[in-house]
Structures are given as C-alpha cells and as structure tokens.
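Sample intake sheet
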Amino acid sequence: MSIAPTLRCPCDGRFLTAAAEYDARPSGETRFDLGGQAYRRAYDRCDLCGHWFGRHRLDLAALYNETYVDATYGGADGIRRKFAAVMALPAAASDNRQRADRVRAFARSRGIDEAAAPRLLDVGAGIGVFPAAMAEAGWAVTAIEEDPRAVAHLSAIPGVDARAASLASLAQSEAGAFQAVTFNKVLEHVEDPAALLAAAAPLVAPRGFVYFEVPDVAAARVDAQREEFFIEHHHVFSPASAALVGERAGFAVAAVERLREPSGKFTIRVLLEAR
C-alpha cells in the first residue's frame, strides 16, 4: 500500500520534498519476511512542520502478528529474556524507568494520588517493562498488545491486566476509567496516528491525561540509517508535528519535550490534556 502523507494537516502534503530513499535494509534493521517484495521505500519531509512521512508500496499488513514478535524477539522465550535483561538495567540506564518517572511526576502535578491505585492504560505495551515499572509504583495497569504471546507474557507481570483489544472496544466498557493513557513508541507505527490518539479520548478520566513518545527527526541530522528510520516506522516526528498530531486528535498540548534517552534514542515526549 502507499502510505498517505497526512497527519490530518490542512496543508495536505503540499510542502513535501524527498528526504531519503532505501533500496536495502539499513544496518541493524530487523529482517522481517516481506514475502518476496522488493525492498524499496522512501521518506518525504514536510518543509512546513519538519515531519517525515514514509512512502512505499510494501504490504506490511502482517507485520505485527507473529512476524514482528518472531523477528524482533525470537518468539515467547525471547520476550521473556529481553524483559529480564531490560528490567535488570540500573535506573539511570533505563529508558523505561525514566519514562515512568516523567509520567508519575505529571500525574502528581494534576493531583492524582498513587496511594489510590490510579489506573493506567498502556497501548502497544511491547514486552511490558514500562507497565511493570508503573505497577511497582502502585498504578493499576491495563496493557494492550496484538500478539497472543505478548498478551500472555504481559499477564504474567504482577498487577498488569493484559488484553488483545481495540481502544474502541474498551471505550464501550471503560469510558472515563483511566487517569493516564500512554503510547510509548507506538504512533510512528500506524498510518493515521491522529485517529489512534483520538480513540483514547473517551477512556480518559477527569483530570486524566495522555502521554506519548515518538522517535525524533533530529536523528536525521546524525544518520538517516538509524533505527528511527527503520521500515516499521511510517512517521518520524518533529516537535512541531508531535504537537500538531495531539491537537488534531482533539487534545490540548500541555508539554512537548525533546531528549536523548539512555539507550541513545532521539525521542520526543508529549503530554496531552482534554480540551
């Protein structure tokens, strides 16, 4: 399929210029099975907001089923090994611990009391290190993942309610239930990140908030062969486009921050409030 160059922007792609082209996997990119499709893809950059949009005709529909877990972690055993390794990192070297500290600090600023076991929904929870850190801090965590092996793994983490569910289905039964909804390195993987963010709005409780992290296009100034530009990333955000996608999803932007994480990743993190 061809990825649409839009964040629901009013400019509708009028300011795009070619930014990078790939006819082979960058060094370090996961070797996903593309079913014999030729590896050709590109990014276009918006000269207005600085956002990079993936452009290709590759069919990646099956990427986040068994293919992703198998290729990225080596199956269920690989998930467990990776989880144990990341959990063992010292706090100063852990992206996830620092992420949890930021979310907790913002929750405190909004008068959310951890002693009352506030609820958090983590969308695209991966191997579950961030949900585990939040559960340790007293939050009641619900985690969403697609692969049943990831769901089973997340269910084994104390305090984490893991589900293979959509935000739309959760909204029917859990409207207004969560003090925080988080998307950590998730929005860059979907074609329409504004729509995914907007689907979280009914789930946010009064005084609650949405937090998301995305790869930062600043890495392009270092090396467009970095992981921020790997095949699974349809979008690479700038601070302006990260704020824009939150606004297009119907939220007010409370904070936009740029950082380089302990892992070396260039990251933008955004805190959103209900209007």
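Comment: The longest helix spans residues 95-109. The radius of gyration is 18 Å.
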